[in-house]
Structures are given as structure tokens and as C-alpha cells.
Amino acid sequence: MLHSVLRKGLAGLALSFALATGAHAATPAACAALQAKYPDWKGKTLVNAINPHTPGYEAVDPKDPDKYIGFDIDLGEAIGDCLGFKLTYKPVTFAALLTTLASGQADIVISDIYATKERAKAADFITYSKVFDGVLVAKGNPKKIDGINMSLCGAAAAENTGYVEVPLVQALVEPCKKAGKAEPTLQLYDNNADCIQAILAGRADTYINDVNTVDQAVKAYPDKLAKAIAVTIPYSVGIGVPKDKPKFRDAVLAALIILQKDGEHMALLKKWGLDVNNFKEPDILSVN
Length: 288
Description:
Elements: H1 2-21, H2 28-37, E1 45-50, E2 53-54, E3 58-61, E4 64-69, H3 71-83, E5 86-91, H4 97-102, E6 108-115, E7 124-138, E8 156-160, H5 165-170, H6 173-178, E9 185-189, H7 192-200, E10 206-210, H8 211-220, E11 225-241, H9 246-261, H10 264-271, E12 279-285
Parallel strand pairs: 1-5, 1-6, 8-9
Antiparallel strand pairs: 2-3, 3-4, 6-11, 7-10, 7-11, 7-12
Helix pairs in contact: 3-9
């Protein structure tokens, strides 16, 4: 009887600890069933290619430079726990994420990457987050930028190489010229931190990216930076997997569905201070 009481008490403590720390708590029975259905990855160690320069999503742990922290890190490890595999990490530039995956140097990409039809030619995606972009500017918004529109005429935009925002800015070149205005210019960098530093240094006027990333930058530099506006763009954030591994793609999708039903996905958004409106039910984007 005493043993039974102790076991129940320990189980309650374990559950409380899991909820308090954000530890992975997906339904054991559901995950066990997935591991039985998809046994190929159980006990394996897979490589996740990341661009670890997006605080809140994936970044170097300030307390331990050998570790990475963030929503995507936790989500990936929760998926791994459900399917029975562990993750190691391969940090690369954003532009190299999908080429690293396609070359076999990584097994998966969970790194705040927007799933587009063009990118889906190189990898299959399991989408898991809506996209809201923020427009980052210097405090006071001296250029009066108010979106991805004609207010960018004559402005210098700092962007990550390969980001979807690059062609959106480029598409404004001709309209600005026709309106007799200076065309927008682009400065391309390898990570978010360098884009933000370009504004801080006065080299660039704006940086357009995921609204949570922009909010984090404003929080870090409240006296120097501001969010001009948030805009919606027609993409979703996705997990990239090799196109020749549809079974793995389906396994990741199934694990993500379990994590969402159990509330862990939403709990991780809150843990990392991300907008819960980013939550979306998962889907597959695949282009032949």
C-alpha cells in the first residue's frame, strides 16, 4: 500500500516537473504506437541543420556555447522523443540549410524556414506555423516605412540571403522607378543578427522578417529599434525533410499531430514567448 502511494506521489511530482520545465510529455501510448509503425528511426541519432541566430526559435545557449535553445529546438527534440530518436545539430548559413539536407549532411531541417513551392522542389515540408512578418526600423522610423510597399522606395533593406522577403523587396524596384522614386536596395547577410546590426550601425533602414524575431530585436534594443508594422505573407513555417524519404516525412507529421493534440506545441509557444496565433495544424507541402 505504501509503495503504491509513493509511486502515485512520485508520478504526480514527475508530471508537475514536466509541466513546469516544458519537458516532453507526449502521450506515451500514442508515441509507442508510432514507434511500432515507424521503427526505422528508433534508437537512431539524426542531424538537424539549423541557422542558430533567431532568438526564440534557435540560438546558442548563453549559458553554454555548446548547446542550442529555442522553440524549434524543443519541438524537434519532442518529435524525436515521440519517434524514439535523438538529435544532434549542424549549424550552417540560412542559404545552406536545404543544400545541407539534400547532400545528406543532415536528416532534417527545423529552423524557422518558410515553406514555399520553390523550396519544396528541394525538400518536402511539414508545415506547423503561420507567418506574420514584422518590419524592423530605427527608433522613430525616420524613413516612414509602413510595409512591404512603396514606402520602401529609396530605402536600404537588410535581409538574409535566400529569404522570401528578398524577392518581395526586389519586386518594388520597377514600381518605384515608374513613380519617379529611388529604387530600394538590398544588403544580404548570412543571419538575423547581422541584419539587425546593419540597422543599429545605420547601414540599413529596415529588416523584414518573422514578427517574433523583430519583436525580440526591439526588446533587446528598445532605445534604438522599433517595429513599424506587422504584415501577413502567404507562407507557413515548415520542417524540411529529404524528398526521397516520404516514410520519414509521414512519421514526423504523425508525431507533430500528437504533440499538438497533447497541447505541447502550444505550451512551447508560450514558453518561448512566441505569439500563439502562429499555431497551425500541420500539413504537407511537396512539389515534384
